[in-house]
Design goal:
The chain is an all-alpha fold. It has helices at residues 3-7, 10-19, 37-50, 59-62, 66-78, 81-96. This is Transposase.
Length: 103
């Protein structure tokens, strides 16, 4: 299992796919191939959990650069992806009976 699979396991990826907006099409065509959402999500998770900055992101491990991860993070933030994903994770944990509201 590689770093991407450890940071974004299949169950999380399946939930994420339900809330991420469709990939925009380039009206003029051409350009570079857009990095996959899975790799970008893993890069964002790595930055969030490791304490490194986007500029320090080891793109050789993930594919996208720090600038790409930042752009996609901003795009997804504007689309409220994080709030929607948070809600889905809480709902899933609740359905499984793994959410303890007593503290």
């Amino acid at each position: 299992m590689g770093i991407i699979e450890r940071l974004v396991p299949d169950e999380l990826w399946e939930l994420f796919q339900r809330v991420v907006p469709e990939t925009p099409t380039r009206p003029q065509g051409g350009g570079r191939r857009r990095h996959g959402d899975w790799e970008v999500l893993a890069a964002i998770a790595f930055v969030a959990t490791s304490g490194c900055t986007l500029q320090q992101l080891p793109s050789a491990s993930f594919g996208p650069s720090g600038a790409t991860a930042h752009r996609r993070f901003t795009e997804w933030s504007k689309a409220r992806v994080w709030a929607k994903l948070h809600r889905l994770v809480l709902d899933e944990l609740g359905v499984r009976g793994e959410l303890d509201w007593c503290f």
